[in-house]
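Customer ticket, subject: "Can you confirm the structure for Oxidoreductase?"

Message body: Hello, I'm evaluating your service for our small team and ran a test protein. I'd like someone to confirm that this is what the system normally returns, since I don't have a reference to compare against.
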Amino acid sequence: MGRTTIGIVLNGVTGRMGLRQHLLRSVLAIRQDGGLPLRDGSVLWPEPVLVGRSETKLRDIAERHGLTDWTTDLPAALARPDVQVYFDAQVTSARVKALQMAIDAGKHIYTEKPVAETLEQAIDLARLADAAGVKHGVVQDKLFLPGLRKLARLVEGGFFGKILSVRGEFGYWVFEGDWQAAQRPSWNYRAADGGGIVLDMFPHWHYVLEQLFGPVRAVTARAVTHIDRRWDEESAAYDATADDAAYGIFELDGGIVAQINSSWAVRVNRDELVEFQVDGTHGSAVAGLHHCRIQPRAATPKPVWDPDVPTTQRFREQWQEVPDNDTFPNGFRAQWEQFLRYVAADEPYVGDLWAGARGVQVAELGLQSSREGRRLEIPELDR
Ligand SMILES: NC(=O)c1ccc[n+]([C@@H]2O[C@H](COP(=O)([O-])OP(=O)(O)OC[C@H]3O[C@@H](n4cnc5c(N)ncnc54)[C@H](O)[C@@H]3O)[C@@H](O)[C@H]2O)c1
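Agent reply: Thanks for trying us out. I re-ran your input and got the following:
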């Protein structure tokens, strides 16, 4: 069996995600391993075409990684018959226009989240892609984290009994940029540039909740800007107009209540940067990026509330580590492989532009809930 080449336009490779996770750890890592083996015994060979705004940056990335195919001319790249897939890791505000162009050019679409800044745009994109008959996928990397894979294993194995609630805690301190440089790009903190933690993180929480526990039916959220002045990449001060923390309650089928805090203004007192505690009638689990610990019903301690006596129990030590029992590749790469197999060999794939639109819907309704101070139900999307 031979080798088939698949041309992929990668737009936004000069950015954090585009370069590290998608170009280096996914597409080039697949090439370093000899390509992607398909079920029929053949190999799929991704051929990247780097696209961006800066010739200097693109040339530098290409040279450093032994690549020659790059351009600042997106329409020209999309007109090439040897390109089958368009991938987008640009800033969120630049995404819709580029995805529309790629769909019009008949390319399959793979994209970072959020797929758009508004639900209306996200639905238009999904409809456009369906009408054009192209395949489409949205990055859902958190599902591929070892900790969440183990959590999924617990759900599938019936460990929890009836699942009651999910408590998520995500965040860390993002430096303001004055006396220590900020570790995230400044556009994230400006509403006009597509920033904000709700638009950034609620789409992640949505696919995690939907795929692990079931459909999300209502949202109540409080989004705030705790730090309203920051310093950008050039050390210039700016007004931080986007929300940098969000306190959300999501209601799922079966009465499951998920409460997730997301914050770039919190100091970490956890084992990992994100942790989800799931409580069920037969057991509980705490899953992070890598680890997952459980406490079954039969091993549940019986604490008694007595504020006058210091507790002698070491509650965290009463949990048991879930073993790996598997090897977990980089999550972005694992999802790239799924998407490429979907495009090239029609293998099953979850997480299309409609899933992306549902993520944007929850973000949009979350922001509305915060503005209006009320709980909002989440209607089914009209295709
Ligand atoms: N899946 C995840 O876990 C995850 C994590 C972080 C970011 N993201 C998403 O990935 C996308 C990129 O985020 P990032 O952190 O890599 O951002 P970044 O600022 O590091 O990179 C942005 C990229 O977009 C390009 N760009 C195009 N038009 C631009 C414009 N008008 N202004 C500024 N840059 C422009 C830049 O050249 C650069 O290549 C965002 O949509 C973000 O929501 C996803």
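A couple of notes from the result: The CA atoms of residues 34 and 45 lie 8 Å apart. The chain is about 30% helix and 25% strand. Feel free to reply with more questions.
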